[in-house]
Each structure stands twice: as C-alpha cells, then as structure tokens.
Amino acid sequence: MPVTAVLAGRIYTPQRCIEQGCVLIKDSHIRAVGSRGEIAVPADARVYDLGDDILAPGFIDIHVHGAGGHDVMEGTREALARIGQTLLKHGTTAYLATTVTAPKDTTLRVLESLSAAILSAREEITGKEALPLGIHLEGPFISLLRRGVHPAAHIQPASPEVLQEMLDAARGEVRILTLAPEIAGAEASIRLARERGVIVALGHSDATYEETLHAIECGASHAVHLFNAMRPFHHRDTGIVGAVLMHKRLTAELIADGVHVDAAALCLALAAKGVEQLVLVTDGTSATGMPDGRYYLGTIPVTVQVGVCRTAEGKLAGSVLTLDRAVRNMLALARVDLTQALTMATLNPARLLGLSAHQGVLAADAAADLVWLDSQLHVRGTFTRGYPNF
C-alpha cells in the first residue's frame, strides 16, 4: 500500500489540536502526525485534503448491543458485519460486542460463535466496518432489583465456575465483565476475572457504598452506564453512585443522549470524576441507525418512538445513540470543549482496555483509524486501518 497523506484544517490527537495538520499512513498504521510545515509528504503519496474540516481518532464504543437491525446475541459474522457497517457511518471504528442476560446454555453457545465471528471480522477488515475488539459480558451476575430489562428468570448469583465456562467459551475474547458487587459470589468472581485479564465493571447494582468499596479493593475498576440501573444516591445512603463518583481509580460510562442522563447529572459526573475518568458509550441496540419501530434486544421486544428505545412496560432498553451524537451532546449539555469530548470517546476507552498505545490516539505507530468531521461535528467519512470509507 502506498503512503497516504490526510490533510485537515484541525487535527485532534485528541488531547491537542494541530492547526493545518497532516497525518501520514502506511501499511494500516500512522507513520507521522504534525503540522503541514513539519511533515514531508512523499511525492507519490495519495493525498486526501479535507479542507477546513476536522480529523480525529475513530471513536471506540465499549458498550454496544447491536445496530443496523442486528443484535450481538445473533452471534454471526453477518450480524457483526451489519453492526460494524452501521457504527462506521457514525465515526465508531472499534467496539466491544455486548451481550445481554440469557439462559446459560444460550450464553455459552453465543459466546462461542461470537468469538469466532470476531476473529473472522479482524481477518477481513477492509475499511467497510468497525472492528470488534472483543466482548463485553453484561449479565447474568446482576441485581434482580436493578436488572433494567435483563430477563429476571436468567439472572443468577455470581459463580466462578459458571464464569470460567463463559470465559472458556469466549476463547479469551471477553474484555469486560459487568457484575453487581453485592450479590453472592461476587468477590470470588471478581478475583477470577482479574486473574484472566478481564476488566470488572460494576453495574445493574443495588450495592451500598461499603459493598462497592470492597469490590474496588478486590479489583473492580470500571462502572457501566453511571446513574442508570443503580441504587439511587441519597445524602444518608450514597450507595454505588456515591462510591463511583468519589473514587478516581474507577472509570465510568455515560450515555449522553439527554434521556438516560440529564445535563445536570452529566455536569455532576464531570465535576466529581474529571474528563480523564469518563467514557462515552451508547448502550446501542439493534435499532441504532434504523427508523422508529419494533426491534429486539437479545430476545426482548423493544419499541423505538421518537428515537427512544423502551419495552412494552415503558422501561428504557438501551438506546439508539451514536458516538458522534454523544460528542455533540457533551458540548451542548455539559459545556465541555471538543478536546475533552473527543478524549471521552477515543483515548479514555482505549486506556481502559490497555490499548492506548495503538488505539484511540493519532500518533506514530498507532492504528490508522480516523474519523473525518465537518465543522458541525457530523461524520463525513472514516479511515479504518488506513482504508478510506467515504
């Protein structure tokens, strides 16, 4: 592959902005990033001039259940392809395929087929879909009281033995495990997950402040969709929300769609934790990128009306948010600047996954996964592993 040079009015790395910048790409990796005066573009390079527009690292979504009419629980290569194609249209170049609580046998079967589909997707990457980085296992070790829409019949106490089966079925592809720290077996399961290199995330939980602290001491380091499906904060019972806000070691997800979390709560999270500890996610469902109508989250029927996804009982069931819209929402609702919003959608999730040397950043030797944004922060195109998609 010849050298590719991408020129843009502003390049966000994301933590700094380079005016009139240039990115050189060779063999699916970035070779150099800097101002046009600093970068020598080879005479035979293929040049993409984006004018006054913006170039940034591709977004990384660590909490995706589906998109484009397909659900991760289908566990097929075809489903992942459609999900990845839809995400890519909205600037997400990498993601974690996220499961939902199901019968044990179903979960084991899905994890086995899903891991195979993920490996196949990595081999076939041609710039036409977002890259699955692994699996986010959400459930079944969660609170019945704070289960959200996860089926009550299939929720179970945390079990190291069952978790071991699931990790084995996924063939090393589980990156995050969501777990309620107050349930039976939680401590042993947290320790097993950490031994296997899995990030333990706290969520769908009715935990007290003290129970949450104990889980952090045992190795939990992340919290899923902060404020949602959690024991509510009270000034005499701060609970899991208080613990997440208080402890800087814990990163936390935010669903910045203006529905799951309002502007004041977004600002509270920012004030308590700072930009560096927050990760923008979508909790996207199969309805993402689709018109209003009826869809499924796993086997759970959901209906999307005016862009909000709910069950027949009226419970929020994931979202149809995309990360480009989440970035725009953070500027509008939380009044952060673009560097901060992009950091929460790129570098922070990469850091959480231990991939920040090669993902979520524009730097020499990083993967050439980039998003092209116009002045209103709408996606005009992407580069995945150096391949243009526009």
Record the SSE blueprint.
Layout: E1 4-12, E2 17-26, E3 29-35, E4 46-49, E5 54-57, E6 59-64, E7 66-67, E8 70-71, H1 77-89, E9 92-98, H2 104-123, E10 131-138, H3 160-169, E11 174-179, H4 186-195, E12 199-202, H5 209-218, E13 222-223, H6 239-246, E14 251-255, H7 263-273, E15 278-281, E16 293-297, E17 300-305, E18 308-310, H8 323-333, H9 338-345, H10 347-352, E19 370-373, E20 379-384, E21 387-389
Parallel strand pairs: 1-4, 1-5, 6-9, 9-10, 10-11, 11-12, 12-13, 13-14, 14-15
Antiparallel strand pairs: 1-2, 2-3, 5-19, 7-8, 16-17, 17-18, 19-20, 20-21
Helix pairs in contact: 1-2, 2-3, 5-6, 8-9
Overall 3D shape: globular
Class based on secondary structure composition and strand pairing: alpha/beta
Q: Average pLDDT across residues?
A: 97
Kindly provide the name of the CATH class of the largest domain.
Answer: Alpha Beta
Low-confidence stretches: none
The main pleated sheet reads as: 8 strands, mixed
Question: How much of the sequence is in beta strands?
Answer: 25-35%
